[in-house]
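Translate sequence into C-alpha coordinates.
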Amino acid sequence: MKKKYVILGVLAAAIAGAWYFTPSMESIVKKLVHKYGSQVTGTDVNLEGFDLSVKNGEGKIKKITVANPAGYKKPYLLSLDGITVKVNLKSLTTDTIVIEQINIDKPVVTYEMLSLTQNNVKQVQNNIKEFTSAGQKASSKADEQKKADASAKEEGGKKVIIKSLTINNGELQAAANVAGKTTDMTVALPTIQMNNIGAAKNGDSITQSISKIFNQILSTASATAVSSNLSNLKDLANENLNNVVGGVKDRVKSIGIFGK
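Result follows.
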Protein backbone atom coordinates (compact mmCIF):
# COMPACT_ATOMS: atom_id res chain seq x y z
CA MET A 1 0.00 0.00 0.00
CA LYS A 2 2.78 2.41 0.90
CA LYS A 3 4.49 1.69 -2.42
CA LYS A 4 1.28 2.56 -4.23
CA TYR A 5 1.05 5.93 -2.50
CA VAL A 6 4.74 6.64 -3.21
CA ILE A 7 4.19 5.99 -6.92
CA LEU A 8 1.10 8.20 -6.97
CA GLY A 9 3.03 10.92 -5.16
CA VAL A 10 5.87 10.83 -7.66
CA LEU A 11 3.42 10.91 -10.56
CA ALA A 12 1.57 13.89 -9.07
CA ALA A 13 4.85 15.74 -8.57
CA ALA A 14 5.87 15.02 -12.16
CA ILE A 15 2.56 16.33 -13.51
CA ALA A 16 2.78 19.44 -11.34
CA GLY A 17 6.37 20.00 -12.42
CA ALA A 18 5.48 19.65 -16.09
CA TRP A 19 2.56 22.07 -15.69
CA TYR A 20 4.81 24.66 -14.03
CA PHE A 21 7.85 24.09 -16.22
CA THR A 22 6.20 24.31 -19.65
CA PRO A 23 4.59 27.80 -19.48
CA SER A 24 7.52 29.35 -17.61
CA MET A 25 10.24 28.00 -19.91
CA GLU A 26 9.40 30.34 -22.81
CA SER A 27 9.61 33.40 -20.57
CA ILE A 28 12.93 32.25 -19.08
CA VAL A 29 14.53 31.52 -22.46
CA LYS A 30 13.30 34.83 -23.93
CA LYS A 31 14.87 36.78 -21.08
CA LEU A 32 18.17 34.89 -21.33
CA VAL A 33 18.46 35.34 -25.10
CA HIS A 34 17.56 39.03 -24.91
CA LYS A 35 19.85 39.83 -21.98
CA TYR A 36 22.97 37.94 -23.00
CA GLY A 37 22.51 38.18 -26.77
CA SER A 38 22.25 41.95 -26.49
CA GLN A 39 25.37 42.07 -24.31
CA VAL A 40 27.36 40.06 -26.82
CA THR A 41 26.32 41.89 -30.01
CA GLY A 42 25.84 45.39 -28.65
CA THR A 43 22.41 45.50 -30.36
CA ASP A 44 18.90 44.40 -29.47
CA VAL A 45 18.44 40.61 -29.62
CA ASN A 46 15.00 39.05 -29.21
CA LEU A 47 13.40 35.62 -29.31
CA GLU A 48 9.82 35.00 -30.38
CA GLY A 49 7.90 31.86 -29.55
CA PHE A 50 9.63 28.97 -27.77
CA ASP A 51 8.07 25.59 -27.11
CA LEU A 52 9.85 22.61 -25.53
CA SER A 53 8.30 19.21 -25.01
CA VAL A 54 8.91 17.80 -21.51
CA LYS A 55 8.31 14.33 -22.96
CA ASN A 56 11.08 14.06 -25.55
CA GLY A 57 13.10 17.29 -25.27
CA GLU A 58 12.21 18.44 -28.77
CA GLY A 59 11.50 22.11 -29.19
CA LYS A 60 10.83 24.88 -31.68
CA ILE A 61 11.79 28.53 -31.75
CA LYS A 62 9.69 30.75 -34.00
CA LYS A 63 12.30 33.44 -34.58
CA ILE A 64 15.43 35.11 -33.23
CA THR A 65 16.25 38.60 -34.46
CA VAL A 66 19.41 40.68 -34.08
CA ALA A 67 18.77 44.37 -34.67
CA ASN A 68 21.08 46.52 -36.75
CA PRO A 69 23.38 48.99 -35.02
CA ALA A 70 22.28 52.63 -35.03
CA GLY A 71 22.61 54.40 -38.35
CA TYR A 72 21.47 51.58 -40.65
CA LYS A 73 18.18 51.60 -42.54
CA LYS A 74 17.35 47.90 -42.42
CA PRO A 75 15.70 46.83 -39.14
CA TYR A 76 17.65 43.60 -38.67
CA LEU A 77 21.18 42.40 -39.20
CA LEU A 78 20.13 38.79 -38.65
CA SER A 79 16.81 36.96 -38.70
CA LEU A 80 16.73 33.28 -37.75
CA ASP A 81 13.51 31.44 -38.51
CA GLY A 82 12.49 27.80 -38.41
CA ILE A 83 14.70 26.74 -35.50
CA THR A 84 14.31 23.25 -34.05
CA VAL A 85 16.18 21.94 -31.02
CA LYS A 86 16.70 18.64 -29.25
CA VAL A 87 17.59 18.93 -25.56
CA ASN A 88 18.84 16.25 -23.20
CA LEU A 89 16.12 16.61 -20.56
CA LYS A 90 18.16 14.96 -17.82
CA SER A 91 20.82 17.64 -18.22
CA LEU A 92 18.33 20.39 -17.28
CA THR A 93 18.74 19.47 -13.63
CA THR A 94 22.56 19.66 -13.81
CA ASP A 95 25.00 22.56 -14.07
CA THR A 96 25.62 21.85 -17.77
CA ILE A 97 22.72 21.76 -20.21
CA VAL A 98 23.36 19.45 -23.16
CA ILE A 99 21.69 20.39 -26.43
CA GLU A 100 21.90 17.43 -28.77
CA GLN A 101 21.01 19.29 -31.92
CA ILE A 102 20.02 22.70 -33.27
CA ASN A 103 18.77 23.06 -36.85
CA ILE A 104 18.22 26.50 -38.38
CA ASP A 105 16.54 26.76 -41.77
CA LYS A 106 16.51 29.79 -44.09
CA PRO A 107 18.22 32.43 -41.93
CA VAL A 108 18.63 35.88 -43.46
CA VAL A 109 21.69 38.05 -42.96
CA THR A 110 21.43 41.66 -44.10
CA TYR A 111 24.81 43.00 -45.18
CA GLU A 112 24.35 46.76 -45.32
CA MET A 113 27.14 49.03 -46.53
CA LEU A 114 27.28 52.70 -45.62
CA SER A 115 30.67 53.09 -47.31
CA LEU A 116 33.66 50.98 -48.32
CA THR A 117 34.92 51.21 -44.77
CA GLN A 118 31.68 50.73 -42.85
CA ASN A 119 29.15 47.90 -42.81
CA ASN A 120 26.87 46.40 -40.18
CA VAL A 121 28.37 42.89 -40.20
CA LYS A 122 31.86 44.18 -39.46
CA GLN A 123 30.53 46.51 -36.78
CA VAL A 124 28.74 43.75 -34.86
CA GLN A 125 31.72 41.42 -35.30
CA ASN A 126 33.85 44.10 -33.65
CA ASN A 127 31.31 44.33 -30.83
CA ILE A 128 31.52 40.56 -30.30
CA LYS A 129 35.32 40.67 -30.40
CA GLU A 130 35.43 43.43 -27.78
CA PHE A 131 33.00 41.55 -25.55
CA THR A 132 34.85 38.22 -25.73
CA SER A 133 38.32 39.74 -25.36
CA ALA A 134 37.20 41.64 -22.28
CA GLY A 135 35.77 38.53 -20.67
CA GLN A 136 38.27 35.86 -21.65
CA LYS A 137 41.73 37.27 -20.90
CA ALA A 138 43.40 34.44 -18.99
CA SER A 139 47.03 33.51 -18.45
CA SER A 140 46.41 29.75 -18.22
CA LYS A 141 43.80 27.11 -18.94
CA ALA A 142 43.01 26.88 -15.23
CA ASP A 143 42.35 30.62 -15.06
CA GLU A 144 40.27 30.42 -18.23
CA GLN A 145 38.13 27.65 -16.76
CA LYS A 146 37.68 29.61 -13.52
CA LYS A 147 36.50 32.62 -15.52
CA ALA A 148 34.18 30.45 -17.59
CA ASP A 149 32.70 28.97 -14.41
CA ALA A 150 32.34 32.44 -12.86
CA SER A 151 30.66 33.72 -16.03
CA ALA A 152 28.27 30.77 -16.01
CA LYS A 153 27.48 31.45 -12.35
CA GLU A 154 26.59 35.05 -13.17
CA GLU A 155 24.33 33.80 -15.96
CA GLY A 156 22.15 31.65 -13.74
CA GLY A 157 24.63 28.93 -12.80
CA LYS A 158 24.28 27.05 -16.08
CA LYS A 159 26.76 26.12 -18.78
CA VAL A 160 25.93 24.78 -22.22
CA ILE A 161 27.22 22.09 -24.58
CA ILE A 162 25.84 22.03 -28.12
CA LYS A 163 26.70 18.76 -29.84
CA SER A 164 25.52 19.72 -33.31
CA LEU A 165 24.46 22.98 -34.96
CA THR A 166 23.39 23.05 -38.62
CA ILE A 167 22.34 26.10 -40.61
CA ASN A 168 20.87 25.49 -44.07
CA ASN A 169 19.43 27.51 -46.96
CA GLY A 170 20.63 30.86 -45.65
CA GLU A 171 20.47 34.10 -47.61
CA LEU A 172 22.74 37.12 -47.65
CA GLN A 173 20.75 40.21 -48.57
CA ALA A 174 23.30 42.87 -49.40
CA ALA A 175 22.42 46.54 -49.65
CA ALA A 176 24.14 49.90 -50.02
CA ASN A 177 22.45 53.24 -49.39
CA VAL A 178 23.36 56.66 -50.74
CA ALA A 179 21.17 59.70 -50.12
CA GLY A 180 18.00 57.63 -50.27
CA LYS A 181 19.15 55.55 -53.24
CA THR A 182 19.35 51.83 -52.48
CA THR A 183 20.87 48.95 -54.43
CA ASP A 184 20.07 45.41 -53.26
CA MET A 185 21.14 41.92 -54.23
CA THR A 186 20.72 38.48 -52.71
CA VAL A 187 23.16 35.56 -52.67
CA ALA A 188 22.99 32.14 -51.03
CA LEU A 189 24.95 31.38 -47.89
CA PRO A 190 26.83 28.08 -47.64
CA THR A 191 25.74 25.50 -45.09
CA ILE A 192 27.21 26.12 -41.64
CA GLN A 193 28.05 23.14 -39.43
CA MET A 194 29.40 23.44 -35.89
CA ASN A 195 30.00 20.48 -33.57
CA ASN A 196 30.66 20.03 -29.85
CA ILE A 197 30.45 23.70 -28.92
CA GLY A 198 31.70 24.01 -25.35
CA ALA A 199 32.50 20.30 -25.01
CA ALA A 200 36.23 20.83 -24.49
CA LYS A 201 35.60 22.77 -21.27
CA ASN A 202 32.62 20.78 -20.02
CA GLY A 203 30.36 23.58 -21.17
CA ASP A 204 30.48 27.22 -22.22
CA SER A 205 28.68 30.03 -20.50
CA ILE A 206 25.59 31.32 -22.27
CA THR A 207 27.43 34.38 -23.59
CA GLN A 208 30.31 32.25 -24.87
CA SER A 209 27.90 29.99 -26.75
CA ILE A 210 26.06 32.97 -28.27
CA SER A 211 29.37 34.62 -29.23
CA LYS A 212 30.65 31.54 -31.05
CA ILE A 213 27.43 30.94 -32.99
CA PHE A 214 26.79 34.55 -34.02
CA ASN A 215 30.43 35.11 -34.93
CA GLN A 216 30.46 32.00 -37.15
CA ILE A 217 27.31 33.16 -38.95
CA LEU A 218 28.69 36.67 -39.48
CA SER A 219 32.12 35.40 -40.56
CA THR A 220 30.43 33.20 -43.16
CA ALA A 221 28.32 36.14 -44.33
CA SER A 222 31.38 38.39 -44.60
CA ALA A 223 33.34 35.79 -46.57
CA THR A 224 30.36 35.27 -48.87
CA ALA A 225 30.09 39.02 -49.49
CA VAL A 226 33.77 39.17 -50.41
CA SER A 227 33.60 36.18 -52.76
CA SER A 228 30.36 37.26 -54.44
CA ASN A 229 29.92 39.79 -57.23
CA LEU A 230 29.15 42.86 -55.18
CA SER A 231 30.71 45.36 -57.58
CA ASN A 232 27.52 47.38 -57.89
CA LEU A 233 27.29 47.74 -54.15
CA LYS A 234 30.96 48.62 -53.89
CA ASP A 235 30.57 51.34 -56.52
CA LEU A 236 27.58 52.77 -54.70
CA ALA A 237 29.38 52.62 -51.36
CA ASN A 238 32.41 54.28 -52.91
CA GLU A 239 30.16 57.03 -54.24
CA ASN A 240 28.81 57.47 -50.72
CA LEU A 241 32.33 57.73 -49.31
CA ASN A 242 33.33 60.29 -51.96
CA ASN A 243 30.22 62.32 -51.18
CA VAL A 244 31.08 62.33 -47.49
CA VAL A 245 34.71 63.28 -48.14
CA GLY A 246 33.69 65.91 -50.67
CA GLY A 247 31.20 67.41 -48.26
CA VAL A 248 33.81 67.67 -45.55
CA LYS A 249 36.29 69.17 -47.99
CA ASP A 250 33.75 71.77 -49.15
CA ARG A 251 32.97 72.67 -45.56
CA VAL A 252 36.62 73.09 -44.69
CA LYS A 253 37.22 75.10 -47.85
CA SER A 254 34.38 77.44 -46.94
CA ILE A 255 36.21 78.50 -43.79
CA GLY A 256 39.39 79.22 -45.69
CA ILE A 257 41.72 76.33 -44.85
CA PHE A 258 42.06 75.21 -48.49
CA GLY A 259 42.01 78.75 -49.81
CA LYS A 260 39.73 79.93 -52.61
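Note: The helical segments are 2-41, 120-135, 141-154, 206-227, 231-254.
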